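Sample entry as discussed:
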Amino acid sequence: MSIVKNWGVILVIAAAMTGCGQEHNHKGKTPLVEVSGEFLYKEDLQAALPLNISKDDSVLFAEHYIRNWIEDALLFDKAEGNIPDNDKISKLVENYRRALIMHTYQEELVNQKLANDISEEEINAYYEKNKELFRLDNPLVKGLFIKVPLSSPDLGNVRVWYRKNNQDVIEKLEKYSLRNAVSYDYFYDRWTSVPDVAAKIPLKVLDTDANYLDKNRNVEVKDTAFCYFLHIEDFLGKDKQKPLDFARDEIKEILINLKRVEFINKVKEDLYQRASDRNKIIYYYLNSDE
């Protein structure tokens, strides 16, 4: 249901203010307000609306948003007519636009070209040479997590299964989770930070005791609606060296940044040489005698 339908007063005001805007090509959008030829559209207002906002709050938000938009539009119109050096501002805007376009293009080039040129050998070499740079801010764990409603059947089996790391038990848990689990996360094959695990389970001690999961490898917690089962297979404490597979993305980003300037300069040089070879650069030299 469109929330705008509840904004009767706002739409009446909007209709009164649009004036001659009916002749404007709105490209399929629905105008709400016009100020000095500028339009605020229903679609823009809906895009700005916070998620899960109540009906009453949405009306209040709309009123404030529209009022602020009108005031900004009026202030801009007033300022534009009273700034003596609009040409200077236009030049600044154009310079910023050029810089933004070039920056965006450079980032696309880096992501498309340079990122793919970082080899595993380079990553491994950088890691081995700079191990002291890669220390854990938070402990890492490997294991398994499953969250199920209290009313789920066969919880006794889950209490046995989640503690074991063998293929037969894992298959049983996976089949069980498809029918009953609210959340199931198998991370025996990858390191996961303890804060990420702590976000899944209501266990406050994880916020204060960095080594709790090293001392308690099997954790079961209940609240009023769910059972939470967590098994820790491997634990790597804070300040230990980051494993290579956990540090890989970080190292790749470092290597990209180290190569970024050289890469961009090479792109510029190639563009210059290509334009020069095709006689696309025209030099206008002043007569040195003048």
Remarks:
- The first strand starts at residue 31 and ends at 35.
- Confidence is low (pLDDT under 50) at residues 1-5, 11-21.
